[in-house]
Amino acid sequence: MAKKTYDLLFKLLLIGDSGVGKTCLLFRFSDDAFNTTFISTIGIDFKIKTVELGGKKIKLQIWDTAGQERFHTITTSYYRGSMGIMLVYDITNIKTFDNISKWLRNIDEHANEDVEKMILGNKCDMDDKRQVPTARGEAIAREHNIPFLETSAKANINVEKAFMNLAQAILNKTPGRVSEPNINIGTQDTSARRCC
Amino acid sequence: MAGYQQRLKCFEDLLEADVIDLKALRNLCFISGCPHEKSIRSICWKIFLNYIPLEKRKWNDVLQKQRNLYKQYIEEIIILPGKKMKSKESANGELEDHPLNPNPDSEWRETFRDNEMLLQIDKDCRRLCPDLSFFQQATEYPCEVLINSSSSVENLRKRVEQCVLQSETVAKNRLGITLNVVSKKRTHSDEYSVLPDGKEAHWEVVERILFLYAKLNPGLNYVQGMNEILGPIYYTFATDPDQNYREHAEADSFFCFTCLMSEIRDFFIKTLDDSQFGIGSKMNQLMEMLKELDRPLWQRLQDQELRPQFYAFRWITLLLSQEFQLPDVLRIWDSLFADSHRFEFLIYICCAILISVRQDILKNDFPSNMKLVQRVESEIDLRQVLAKARELSST
User: Fold this and answer.
1) pTM to 2 decimal places
2) Given pLDDT bands bounded at 50, 70 and 90, which one contains residue A180?
3) Which residues cross the membrane (chain A) (predicted)?
């Protein structure tokens, strides 16, 4: 039997319009590098990264999806199993921001009710071409009660933080988590599950 | 090397005949692939895709006719509307039709729809085969009417710049922020450079072909991934040793792409996913084949819930073009196009790929296997896979 190398497995999903930089964000997070020369994602892609949070080794299984409408039938099938969804738009392209509500409806329709979400305004290094003010991103996030960050895969701004925050949010409601070391007793497992 | 010369000779002999022996040519190409020399590959592909007939004496006429037709498409779909757009810009004030015209017949509505599609095509063509410098280089044969900076036509490049600009302006207005309306040209310098006026990169030619195709096939439109299907065809024709073929690479690629799409377009149509020829049934076919040929491997994939949607969707839709380096893609397509039961062989290749990494799949956990099937190139020997696929398909 193979040795277990992690304590928890979290499944994350990246969605958003085509060209907003989903693949680049994932590449920055998983390989700490930036590459402008990514081919368009057709169907679905996949990366793994193990991180440490709250003293636990957490394996993040991250699915990267194609943005175009045609691929939705195959990409929406991943919504159901996901524990966290990263919704990405491009701050230099207002259309990708306008579509946020469409993507949120998709999440409502296809994902688990308690899925953790996060909205990311990517390409924030390109301020001279900005079409979406930070305040508008914050407003829509507040309206839906979803955490929000502006990121740049290129300049490495907030990328790690975004993934770690999302993972932390999932961990926070994971039954039997080690949140406060002093109250972690064997029996609280069931009560933690009941509370949500 | 003697073997190679001999093979070249076989091709030459077959292509010299007045009427091509299709069966023999298919067979030769299917087994050994096409040499690029002496335009053999580009001629074979044109024949296999039904662009040119078997009677050699008809080739010139057919090519001439189709290339003229292509010119006409450019005229009707890009030049004429481009001139109109340009003239509307200058004739402010007395427009009968304008961007906010709610009339469904308004040409602007169509223009906006087209621009949206064009932006998507533009995004994808800029990032076509990024490892290869070819598509970023200037073509020897740009479309003269369109690239001249003094031309009275709104060409696609300008249109892309224009619609990015327009949406910028709209965004500012909506926020009520008064900024100096500086007509800031979008600079592409940070990612992919645009060549100076008078020059055209190969990716821009690919973009034009896709735009025309989408306009002529409104039911299908443009779907991401079509660029990956057109790319290898255009590359083959635009790097042909024969100057005449290179010169007409754009028109010839357009028609060969159209022929190829007529056979595989169902993969691109969402509503056909579960129909007989849609991508869903192709993936099922692959799984059935694997179940038949290698039950333990099939069972392993079932147990791990490693569904064909995770990898075979892309393999099949793009005819494996994203899984391998371009030279290998061309070799695979030699066999695919030569296959007389069109694209049956594709499923055999997919099956052979899975079987060739069976030991790893049987041993690995789900994430490792996912990585493996998403990046098979580094794990397999293409020649062995093709040989295996031929073996599977002949039994």
Assistant:
1) 0.85
2) very low
3) none
User: What single DSSP character describes residue A15?
Assistant: E
Alpha-carbon distance of B93 to B149, in angstroms, equals 26
* Contact in structure between A65 and A17 (CB atoms under 8 Å): no
B191 contacts A133? CB cut-off 8 A: no
Flag whether residue B175 sits within 8 Å of chain A, measured between CB atoms. Answer: yes
**Which residue has tokens 């277990």?**
A4
Cβ distance B227 to A40 less than 8 Å, yes or no, reads yes
Domains located in chain B, CATH noted: 1-57 (1.10.10), 59-89+107-264 (no CATH), 270-394 (1.10.472.80)
**What's the pLDDT at B274?**
80
Question: What's the gap in Å between the CA of A13 and the closest CA on chain B?
Answer: 14
Q: Residue A84: which residues within 8 A CB-CB, separation 6 or more?
A: A10, A11, A12, A13, A115, A116, A117, A118, A166, A167, A169, A170
Ordered DSSP codes for A45-98: EEEEEEEEETTEEEEEEEEEE--SGGGHHHHHHHHTT-SEEEEEEETT-HHHHH
- What is each CA distance from A153 to A31, A61, A67, A133, B255, in whole angstroms? 11, 19, 17, 18, 39
